[in-house]
UniProtKB/TrEMBL annotation:
SMART domains cross-referenced by the UniProt entry: DHDPS (SM01130)
Lineage: Bacteria, Pseudomonadati, Planctomycetota, Planctomycetia, Pirellulales
Gene3D superfamilies xrefs: Aldolase class I (3.20.20.70)
Annotated residues for binding of pyruvate: 60, 216
Record-given protein name: 4-hydroxy-tetrahydrodipicolinate synthase
Catalysed conversion reaction: L-aspartate 4-semialdehyde + pyruvate = (2S,4S)-4-hydroxy-2,3,4,5-tetrahydrodipicolinate + H2O + H(+)
């Protein structure tokens, strides 16, 4: 097992090609169907903004509500629309190792560049079970694996020691770190050669300051430009500029987490600024009137009033 106090590895990290801004895109729904025309519009918006990587079928994409056929087709449509212009890291995880393998193998065959693998949820495996789960995925596909650590969703945290073990598994290249703990990020970066990507928009700059290389963003669905500018400035060592943007974006980022469960607020925000991603699927329900008013105020204060005015016409 790696020494948690060891010096950071020298040279490029395994997943360095995923540095920058990745956006966890929403899944647009129309009635009870996925709206693929709107999906393509969202992708083009992200590519035009300079986004590094598109991440479909994650939590933000309401993946728990997608049927297996929808999940498969969604990823195929994203890969075909992107057509190699940016990277695609698809959410293909599950709390069943066999199901995660099926989803991942199929998506890899379709041409995704990397897979985002959430920690198995609900069944709460041991740390050994978590290790064996991710190891099995990595051993059966020939694409980089990003381990997604989000105990607030899964009820089980992946310990630093387990991530250290996983760093020795070929194919495991990245961690999406969403524990909310900067110490955890520092420990991973200090003892492995994995690329760490922030899983919390509001913590992206602090995490980059200790060695993370980017973010898988929710707010990027409505404001990819400022988020990309902040990330690029921080990665270039211009922390004065990055700090200015961070403080400007902080309330927007924190409101997206604080008003209601993701993706409820981001879908509401997209509708407000004219990038409607359709309704939510149960059990997700819309913001109430008070929450919607709060979100409008935050969007207006951030400077999206022009987009909101156009959307309201």
């Amino acid at each position: 097992m790696a020494d948690p106090q060891a010096s950071p590895p020298q040279g490029a990290r395994k997943g360095a090609q995923y540095a920058g801004l990745s956006v966890a895109i929403t899944t647009p729904f129309s009635g009870d169907q996925v709206d693929y025309d709107r999906l393509r519009e969202q992708i083009e918006f992200q590519i035009d903004a300079g986004t590094t990587c598109i991440v479909p079928a994650g939590t933000t994409g309401e993946s728990p509500t997608l049927s297996h056929d929808e999940h498969d087709r969604l990823i195929t449509e994203v890969v075909q629309c992107v057509a190699g212009r940016v990277k695609v890291m698809a959410g293909t995880g599950s709390n069943s190792t066999a199901e995660a393998l099926r989803l991942t193998k199929r998506a890899a065959d379709e041409g995704i560049d990397a897979t985002l693998q959430v920690a198995p949820y609900y069944n709460k495996p041991t740390q050994e079970g978590l290790f064996q789960h991710f190891k099995a995925i990595a051993e059966h596909v020939d694409i980089p694996v990003c381990v997604y650590n989000i105990p607030g969703r899964t009820a089980k945290e992946i310990d630093v020691e387990t991530i250290q073990r996983l760093s020795d598994v070929p194919g495991i290249a990245m961690v999406k770190e969403a524990t909310g703990k900067l110490d955890q990020c520092s420990a991973i970066l200090g003892s492995t050669d994995l690329t760490v990507l922030s899983g919390d928009d509001s913590l992206t700059l602090p995490m980059i300051s200790v060695g993370a290389e980017g973010v898988i963003s929710v707010v990027g669905n409505v404001a990819p430009g400022p988020m990309l500018e902040m990330v690029n400035a921080a990665l270039a060592g211009d922390f004065a500029t990055a700090q200015q943007i961070h403080h400007r974006m902080y309330k927007l980022c924190s409101s997206m987490l604080g008003l209601a469960t993701n993706p409820i607020p981001i879908k509401a925000a997209m509708q407000m600024v004219g990038r409607d991603s359709g309704q939510l699927r149960l059990p997700m329900t819309p913001l109430d009137e008070s929450q919607a008013d709060q979100l409008r105020e935050v969007l207006f204060a951030f400077g999206l009033q022009e987009s909101m005015a156009v959307a309201g016409r």
